[in-house]
Specification:
Shape: globular
Strand content: 25-35%
Largest sheet: 7 strands, mixed
Strand order of the largest sheet: 1-2-3-4-5-7-6
Order of helices and strands: HEHHHEEEHEHEE
Helix content: 25-40%
Number of strands: 7
Radius of gyration: 17 Å
Bound molecules: coenzyme A
Structural class: alpha+beta
Length: 185
């Protein structure tokens, strides 16, 4: 074992532990509310009320709400929606039918920057494209969330447009199904 931590850091491969996605349930209520209050989560998604109490008890066909766990410890949340069927019409009425939209955050501050977000997104992307009708996936990070832009670009998402959702200035990114042409969102 080396006694030089600097050399250790250089030599050690960056291996993340495996992330498992499971459905969110009402038991996750307090955890999701706790994550909503974390400054890094507020900076990324604002302080919008996600109505967890109601939503964790609702299971519309157009949505999946998932908790990411590492070694049995919940660290983050992923939501996948069909934006053409979602009942608030967040993405607008003209959105194409063959899309999915993803929201993601790691709630536990100490789990950021360890490769877990990449694993969560890869698994979410796989879930979306498992439906052969899905042609593209959308995400909408805040314009200010530069780290998230890098994160999505590394995963292959392409810039589409700067757009306001309510009062939030966002950037829409799209990941097309590999090998498939798709119209504008
Ligand atoms: C955006 C977010 C989901 C990304 O997840 P993440 O786990 O932090 O991302 P990853 O670790 O997979 O990759 C990000 C960074 O960690 C580095 N990294 C990747 N694997 C790593 C590993 N095994 N060990 C250490 N660092 C690693 C990457 O190089 C990258 O660094 P960079 O951004 O400085 O270039 C997460 O940071 C987050 O939840 N942020 C707050 C909420 C948010 O912004 N959500 C998105 C809203 S649209």
């Amino acid at each position: 074992m080396s006694l030089n931590p600097k050399i250790d850091r250089i030599r050690r491969p960056r291996v993340s532990r495996a992330v498992k996605l499971r459905p969110a349930t009402p038991v996750d209520l307090e955890l999701l509310q706790f994550w909503d209050c974390q400054p890094h989560v507020i900076a990324a998604k604002g302080d919008e009320n996600w109505q967890w109490q109601e939503e964790l008890n609702r299971h519309p066909a157009w949505r999946e709400q998932l908790i990411a766990e590492v070694g049995g410890r919940p660290i983050g949340f992923v939501e996948i929606i069909d934006p053409s069927r979602e009942d608030c019409h967040y993405w607008g009425g003209c959105i194409a039918e063959n899309h999915r939209a993803i929201d993601i955050w790691i709630g536990e501050r100490d789990a950021i920057g360890k490769g877990y977000g990449t694993q969560m997104m890869r698994q979410a992307i796989e879930r979306c494209f498992a439906d052969p009708s899905v042609q593209a996936i959308l995400v909408d990070p805040l314009e200010s969330n530069v780290a998230a832009h890098r994160f999505y670009e590394r995963l292959g998402f392409e810039y589409v447009v700067n757009r306001s959702f309510d009062d939030d200035r966002c950037i829409v990114y799209r990941l097309r199904r590999p090998g498939s042409p798709v119209g504008n969102a």
